[in-house]
Design brief:
Rossmann fold; single chain; 21 helices; 5-stranded parallel sheet; 3 domains; mainly alpha; binds flavin-adenine dinucleotide
């Protein structure tokens, strides 16, 4: 009998018996460079790969609507990949611990494998599950499948978690040497399962209405889509990344964020691909682009470091002086921002790109975030919640970091007096108005000079472009300069 999963390039050890083991997929929806799956196969046991849909175990931050769309398609591709290995990916709904217990009891499972998670509710959940399995003498093996450096692996000289990016990243770069990614299994030994699982469709992850239609044209969820996106970016984008990354009209960034979030690709794979690219090129060629790109991967690591060590930051400001900040809740203002009807073209373009595609360029995330928190004085949490529901890359670590950064209340945050001017930002990063014209087509015929400030355009220019402010496109909902002064007044008091 061919008892073993063949594992190219790795040594495999045979277990003395053939009781199966479980491998729980969570935010690691890939076969390549997957340490928990590798170890499960290497143990010589038949592997039962499982995905349990248990959104309530993620507390207040269960996946939003756009993430669910992505998850559905990603799981579907993963199941196909397993099928090619003659293995079934099993789907279950309900409490993970109960599903695991059933599988253990009915299939004589003797070990459970997973890659670790770092979100507060997930950490707590996994800790309890691990303990309960150990108490019953079931082997548990957990691995790092998501980060270059786990949150506890680096600390300041005082032994504290980092709160500033530059020394954090310096320390990580000194410590880590990402190796070659693990190969995907070429064969796997499957187990005979005695438990009835459910279908992916039973999770009900796809939207009932058709708001996600454009997602299908924009994205290819799954491991293969992630690999293609990475190699396309390495081929055509990375060398110019440093110069191009801030211009939302172009394709200057990798768009790997949703793939990284669900672990369809690992940061080790990204790192390795960048190194291979640099080795192929002449010395120093392309280095600034690659360094700049890897440091963004570093911001992702930083986000996880902060979230793990300061788990309350998902809901509370990291800087305690922000706790009593007098945010001004207005349902109407929030709605106008969400719908991309603020009257500031760059803000509206970003919010509409988000709604249509489930993604927004980083520069524009900062602009719309600054507008929400400083021009409208709406709490960063309202922004974080909306992004959570609408982003296909919604990621608790990066979203929390991003929003607290924008508001000035988080780690290494923008200083309180840094208030983005939406007109200047737009003129600098969208000089020809291409991005605005794409997402706010009612302004498409305005000349470049007025595209980012239509309210200043002469009447005849507006008329010629078919724009009637207040009718075809909104008047600015606030005066940026007045709003800025009001925000500065409040920020000065709490600093
Ligand atoms: C208010 C706000 C909210 C955000 N919410 C999220 C979120 O929910 N999920 C998310 O993945 N990113 C978030 N970001 C960070 C950033 O905007 C996205 O990661 C980036 O735009 C994704 O596009 P990309 O893959 O083309 O990035 P690239 O520029 O190609 O960067 C490569 C990867 O590095 C990581 N990265 C890049 N920039 C950052 C950053 N500033 N912080 C942390 N990681 C980064 C991402 O994993 C990204 O895929 C947020 C930023 C802001 C300002």
């Amino acid at each position: 009998m061919d008892k073993m999963a063949l594992w190219s390039g790795r040594h495999t050890t045979m277990a003395s018996n053939s009781k199966p083991c479980l491998y729980l997929h969570r935010q690691d929806l890939r076969l390549e460079d997957n340490p928990a799956l590798t170890a499960a196969i290497d143990s010589g046991r038949p592997v039962i790969p499982v995905f349990v849909w248990a959104p309530e175990e993620q507390g207040d931050w269960s996946p939003g609507a756009a993430s669910r769309w992505w998850l559905h398609h990603s799981l579907s591709r993963l199941a196909e990949a397993y099928k090619k290995l003659n293995v079934e990916l099993l789907f279950f709904k309900g409490k993970t611990a109960e599903v695991v217990d059933r599988l253990i009891a009915e299939n004589d499972v003797e070990a459970v494998y997973w890659n670790r998670r770092y979100e507060p509710a997930a950490v707590e959940h996994d800790k309890q599950l691990k303990q309960s399995l150990k108490d019953r003498e079931i082997e548990v093996h957990s691995f790092n499948g998501a980060l270059l450096c786990e949150p506890w692996e680096v600390e300041t000289q005082q032994g504290d978690p980092y709160q500033v990016f530059t020394p954090f990243w310096k320390s990580v770069r000194q410590k880590i040497k990402p190796g070659k990614p693990l190969n995907a299994p070429k064969e796997m030994q499957s187990a005979k399962i005695k438990v009835k699982s459910c279908q992916l469709d039973d999770f009900g992850l796809l939207p009932k209405l058709d708001w996600a239609d454009a997602f299908t044209d924009t994205w290819t969820p799954g491991e293969e889509g992630a690999r293609e996106k990475l190699s396309e970016f390495i081929k055509n984008g990375i060398d110019d990344y440093k110069e191009q990354r801030d211009f939302p009209a172009g394709r200057g960034t990798s768009r790997l964020s949703p793939h990284l979030h669900l672990g369809e690709i690992s940061p080790t794979q990204v790192w390795h691909a960048v190194e291979v690219h640099l080795n192929r090129k002449r010395k120093n060629d392309g280095q600034p682009g690659a360094d700049s790109y890897l440091s963004e991967i570093g911001w992702r690591e930083f986000g996880y470091h902060i979230l793990y060590h300061f788990p309350k930051t998902t809901d509370k400001a990291l800087k305690s002086n922000f706790e009593g900040f007098p945010w001004k809740y207005s349902k109407k203002n929030l709605r106008q921002w969400q719908k991309g009807n603020t009257g500031y073209p760059i803000v509206d373009a970003g919010m509409r790109e988000l709604w249509e595609t489930g993604w927004m360029h980083n520069r524009v995330r900062m602009i719309v975030g600054s507008f929400l928190t400083k021009d409208l004085l709406l709490s960063w949490k309202k922004g974080a919640q909306w992004f959570w529901d609408t982003l296909v890359d919604a990621d608790l670590a990066n979203n929390t970091l991003g929003w607290q950064w924008v508001a000035g209340s988080g780690a290494d945050a923008a200083p309180y007096f840094r208030i983005f001017n939406p007109i200047l930002q737009a003129e600098r990063y969208d000089p020809k108005g291409e991005y605005v014209r794409r997402w706010v087509p009612e302004l498409a015929d305005l000349p470049d000079k007025w595209i980012h400030k239509p309210w200043e355009a002469p009447d005849e220019v507006l008329e010629k472009a078919g724009v009637t402010l207040g009718e075809t496109y909104p008047e600015p909902m606030v005066d940026h300069f007045e709003a800025r002064d009001a925000a500065l007044g409040i920020y000065k008091k709490i600093k």
